[in-house]
Structure formats: C-alpha cells, structure tokens
Amino acid sequence: MFNLLKKDFILLSGVSIFIVICAYIDSIIGFILLKANNINIAYTFGIIGIVFILIVSCIEHDGRNKSQVILNSFPIKRSDIVKEKYIILIVFILISSILFFLLTNIIKVVSHKTDGRAIGILDIIVAIDILLIFYSIYFPLFFKFDSNNVFNSILFILVLIAPKILVKVFDRFEVERILDMVESLNSYKVSIVIFIFSIAIYCISLQVSKHIYLKREF
C-alpha cells in the first residue's frame, strides 16, 4: 500500500510547481473579490481544481504506462490497488486545503487588505463534500472501464469554466435571497450533516469499487 502511494507522489513531483502557481493565482483572485458568494466559489473550486488535476495526472500516467496490467502481474492485492486511489484522494484534498490555507493567510498578512478574507472552514468542507461525492461515482466507473481519457478531458474543462459560469449566475439572478435563507439555518450543522453523508457515500463507493475490480479480467 505504502509503495503504491509513493509511486503516485513520485509521478506528481513534476507538476508540483504548476499546482502551487495555480493555487497562488486562485488565492489572489479569491482575496480581491468583494462579493462573499464569489469568494466562496473561488476558494471552493480552487481546491476542487487542484485535486482534480492531481488525480487526472495520476490516472493518465497509469493509462499511458499500462500500470493496472503491470500491477496485477505483481503479488499485490487488488483490494489494495483500489484502496490506494481512495486514500490518495484524501491526501490530495488535505494537501490542497493546507496549501490554500497557508497562501490565503500569507496574502492577508502581506497585503494588509482589510476587506479581504482568507479561506474558511466552510469553503474547505464544501469542497470536500463535492469531491467525495463526485469521486464516489467516478472511481467505480474508472475501475470498471479504465478508459476515461476523454471523460477526464471534458471534466477538466468543466472545472476550469465552472467558477466563471457560477459567478455570472449569481450576478444575473437573484439567488442571494436563497443563499441567505440557507445561511439563516445553522450553516455549520448543515455542513456537518452533508459531510457525514459524503463520507458514508465514499465508504460505500470503496466497497463497490473493490467488488468491481476483484471481478475484472486483464
């Protein structure tokens, strides 16, 4: 298991600088935005975008090098191969969240901008919820078909343009009233409930993926 995780980290060393630059740019954008909803979108999709780039990089490298076939020729449990992908996602989420937390707080101290804010715990929780639910669907499909290059490319484009689309939607339509109603509820309680739900879905997805992968032929 450890060697599988180590493999993905070594493969991603080449994109580490690019990831930091992307996170830095998104942190600046989020910090200078004035509307709270736009800031939330910038930070949340910043984390999602970074994690998505990392996961796609791993999967595409595995696809180019026939890693799944090679790994199954070694005495490695198939269940460990599946678990590694689920664990590496959690690791990438932690790395991305910590990176944004550090960058936005550094920018806040250096810029002395009084009306800007660093990333908040709710921004991180929302990003985690979206990522866990999305990959709970994605991973079983990946382990079933293992040919998602086109799918990955489409999703990558969507992640890039989604923040701009959402910002325009918030600006054009009066959805702030709806958000205010949601916020009038206890946002922390709601986020905790959704967070627990997303973890439960993720655990179920892991079992489904293991069941699929154990039956798969190479």
From TrEMBL:
Keywords on record:
Membrane, Transmembrane, Transmembrane helix
> Pfam families attached here?
ABC2_membrane_5
Q: Mind telling me what this protein is named?
A: ABC-2 transporter permease
Classification of source organism: Bacteria, Bacillati, Bacillota, Tissierellia, Tissierellales
For this protein, the parts annotated as crossing the membrane are 9-34, 40-59, 86-107, 119-138, 150-170, 190-208
